[in-house]
Design a protein that fits this description.
globular; OB fold (Dihydrolipoamide Acetyltransferase, E2P); 321 residues; Aminopeptidase; alpha+beta; 2 domains; four-stranded antiparallel sheet; binds zinc ion; 13-stranded mixed sheet
Length: 321
């Protein structure tokens, strides 16, 4: 008999599923601040897959996919287990923003967290130690939040040793996404990067955004999960995979001046070095900045929020590898 799975206060026997809170702290009024968990412990042995949604509080489509998978999967037909969270960053969700309203920290720059740090650092610490460390594979779901829309892309990194990097590449290909950012370990703090540093193959998935909840996008996230589950033989069936995966190296272009933003290129459009991508106007309608392609590549994101702050993200261009 396969053993039970314990995460925080939740104990899920094999062949069962259970959802509930992973407590982080209490508010002044006594109510709990928590991370909601949705756990399916399969009847038979297999890998443990973590699916994290809502690390940013304004990226709703991946959150819904995690909830749907929990309802749809029968633990008696699952090998291994799924530890999902529809919303890791609940204080950010409460205000519909990317970051927590409590300390303004970006949770996806705080992993592996600090036990005695600010609240967001504590979220990262508890989630990393209680959930991520138990996983064999990690998928972290994102989108463009309030300000942008992204082409379906996945990010994996060539770090953590050859074997781990290879498994991460296998995981990213198993999603069925055909546009993949091959990154390195240059940043600090994202879930997927820090998981891989400790030997757990991990990827970030980015689809759509604009703070919307489109049925078609939710289904794209669901399809990725089913692809991964069937690829690793956790459920029956065959993954639906593309014939070719295009790898790229992404660059976010930051503007110098704030103003009214208008982007003239669309998702997945190919651009040449020097092409005009977007303009920024001041309040009188005068063009204060032109954003031009720094190299030949593919447009991976579109800023859809009408204004931009000085130094803000305009769009991301991928240099095809
Ligand atoms: Zn995000």
């Amino acid at each position: 008999m396969k053993s039970s799975l314990r995460v925080g206060m939740l104990v899920v026997e094999s062949g069962e599923k259970q959802y509930g809170p992973l407590k982080i702290a209490a508010r002044a009024d006594g109510s709990d601040i928590f991370i909601p968990l949705m756990i399916i412990n399969g009847r038979e042995d297999g890998p443990i897959l973590n699916i994290s949604g809502g690390c940013h509080g304004d990226e709703f489509e991946g959150m819904e996919a995690v909830r749907r998978i929990y309802r749809a999967i029968d633990p008696n037909e699952l090998k291994g287990a799924i530890i999902g969270s529809p919303v890791v960053n609940t204080p950010a969700l409460e205000v519909g923003q990317r970051c927590s309203y409590v300390d303004q920290y970006n949770l996806n720059r705080c992993f592996p967290g600090k036990e005695n740090g600010f609240l967001t650092e504590r979220f990262a610490y508890v989630y990393f130690n209680e959930v991520i460390r138990k996983a064999d594979y990690v998928m972290d779901f994102h989108g463009g939040g309030n300000i942008m829309c992204l082409a379906p892309i996945a990010i994996y990194r060539d770090i953590g040793g050859e074997n781990v990097a290879k498994k991460a590449e296998e995981l990213v290909k198993a999603t069925g996404i055909d546009l993949v950012w091959k990154g390195s370990g240059g940043w600090i703090g994202p879930i997927s990067l820090e998981a891989q540093k400790i030997g757990i193959p991990a990827i970030t998935v980015e689809v759509a955004g604009e703070a919307r909840v489109r049925e078609s996008v939710i289904q794209q996230f669901e399809t990725m999960i089913y692809n991964v589950l069937s690829y690793f033989r956790m459920i029956q069936g065959e993954p639906d995979l593309p014939k070719k995966v295009q790898f790229f190296e992404g660059t976010f272009i930051n503007c110098t001046n704030g103003g009214f933003y208008q982007q003239s290129v669309d998702l997945k459009e190919m651009v040449k070095k020097g092409d005009l991508l977007a303009t920024i106007c001041n309040v009188y309608g005068e063009v204060v900045e032109e954003i031009r392609a720094p190299f030949e590549g593919i447009v991976c994101s579109k800023r859809t929020f009408g204004t931009i702050e000085p130094g803000g993200w305009t769009l991301m261009i991928g240099k095809l590898l």
